[in-house]
């Protein structure tokens, strides 16, 4: 009873202590006590405790029920341990338990949100297994898959599922439409999104502020700021309450288009102590002022940010480092990298790549190579952008054979060239006598 009571009070430490004591003293617990404890541990992200409680249940012959499995599988999926979750899913059969729609939805959600290569294929495989076992997908099932495909940039697959859910008699809700609208707007297909908005209203599904946020984002990406502001006005007329994402999206649109006065005016008019800006708000303003070269305003924004109790994050530092590199000051930018490490911020690939590019543009290849070594010592292997930076630098120095060697190294490591890579190959390497062989590798025609 103590385990259950502490779990209900969300006291994880005392709940675990009571669980351990009960086991030590030989008291037999039931799923009625263990399941709330498991739920609490999942909620608090304590995966080790989740697995420990589950193992002790099995050893203590406390027979797990469907809720037990659903909870543990949810914890494993949240932690990205999808194979372990799949193994536990298979274990259910040995206990004579059949997975429910919740079980399947949890696995699908895990693949869509936490999966890596082939994640949507695996999520679709779970859906097929679900249907074959006569477990009927619900709106959560379809919404999760549709959102996953939209975020993966696979809109045709999302629309296929949208049609399937309607065929199965599962009515789309506002979450369904918002995922599709977000996907369309992210690709710049705002006109198509407007048509879907009409379909949404025709289906008696009312748009919410998330809907309008997608349109504001879509218009901002296309540089159509008047239309984006119009969408904000429409949302206000409908009585919808804009959130920080709404205003941040529009402020970011203004900043990226160089309309800093509009950005500052909006920032000053909507944010207050009751409705404070967040770090993303300030990062957009910093980016805008960095792009315009107004470092005094950058300092002012940084000071205001600190006064409001917000600390610079990795994005802030990346923007400041990028600005210094654009001004031809990579050595000053390098000091910011050291500062990041001092305050416990882990630099990303973006951080290192910006700095390496800054030194390369200065012609300081040695400093760039030192940074690459430093990056790899910190557990970050060179990615496609890293190789592009060095290949371009070597080409500019006329070191074509070395650039080609790097290209081949990149391909051997299984990295896929991007648009910039192909531009370097076309504009720099092929122009200077390098041609591709049957395998796509370049070789020099000059002896």
Automatic annotation (TrEMBL):
Gene3D superfamilies named among the record's database cross-references: Tetratricopeptide repeat domain (1.25.40.10)
Domain of life the protein comes from: Eukaryota
InterPro entries, per the entry: PPR_P_subfamily, PPR_rpt, TPR-like_helical_dom_sf
Keywords: Repeat
Repeat region (PPR), residues: 30-64, 65-99, 100-137, 138-172, 173-207, 208-242, 243-277, 278-312, 313-347, 348-382, 383-417
A Pfam family recorded for this sequence: PPR
Keyword Repeat among record annotations: yes
Keyword Repeat recorded: yes
NCBIfam families cross-referenced by the UniProt entry: PPR
Family indicated by similarity: Belongs to the PPR family. P subfamily.
Protein name, as recorded: Uncharacterized protein
Species, as recorded: Spirodela intermedia (Intermediate duckweed)
Lineage: Eukaryota, Viridiplantae, Streptophyta, Embryophyta, Tracheophyta
